[in-house]
Amino acid sequence: MRIYIPTRGRADNQVTLSFFPEDLRKEVTLVVGHDEADQYVKYDCKIMVCPETVHDIATKRQYIHEHTDDNKIVMLDDDLRFYIRKATNDWHLRYLEAEEYPALFG
Predict the structure, then answer these.
(1) For the chain, what are the domain ranges?
(2) 81: closest CA among 65, 62, 96, 66?
């Protein structure tokens, strides 16, 4: 499975990606506009650069679908933080730990 994160204007603040453990980042592709591509090279994941004609989130999501060979994909917003129940019988939540991410996407 491939994880796509369409993003714009957040080259210095990739919230979703920042919580992924290193081994899961190899499955992540940041999808960026052509005018921002050089700002995202610092991230340790793949980068997909959209052409000039892709200008909003809807066309960016369509571009991802049309330009991937992956059979299974997931698209995530770029500002997500993941939570899990503290216990199966407790409605309170806690942040997901790094070692719990692979099970979430596995």
Answers:
(1) 2-81
(2) 96
